[in-house]
Amino acid sequence: xxxxxxxxxxxxxxxxxxxxxxxxxxxxxxxxxxxxxxxxxxxxxxxxxxxxxxxxxxxxxxxxxxxxxxxxxxxxxxxxxxxxxxxxxxxxxxxxxxxxxxxxxxxxxxxxxxxxxxxxxxxxxxxxxxxxxxxxxxxxxxxxxxxx
Length: 148
Fold this sequence. Notes:
Blueprint: E1 4-7, E2 27-30, E3 39-41, E4 46-56, E5 61-66, H1 69-75, E6 77-79, E7 84-86, E8 93-100, E9 106-108, E10 113-121
Antiparallel strand pairs: 1-4, 2-10, 3-9, 4-8, 5-7, 5-10, 6-8
């Protein structure tokens, strides 16, 4: 699928999001912060990090912004509101809401890979109100009902 993208002035010199391997599901998003002014995220705080790109998703598609597992495992830095949803009718800049769960301040540098974006199809539902739903083996069993 081809995806239309618009780059903003503060994106200049960066690369478009890329898949890192042939089997990757997510495109890595990079920080479009000024090179001379990295963004510091103190422990326990969060910041909205710009990517410098806007996209035009086709109708029936969404983009999900998710954490990078390596950043979370090595630094304790992840995304809030995960996954963040970018709707097909949104045309603004993609920004990543990063939070630092690590013990030390985290510096977000220009061009650093900070999150990943997954493009997927979706369906919208129409509600059909029923007095009774069909029975299943699980029934109304909730949290923990299928085992540990």
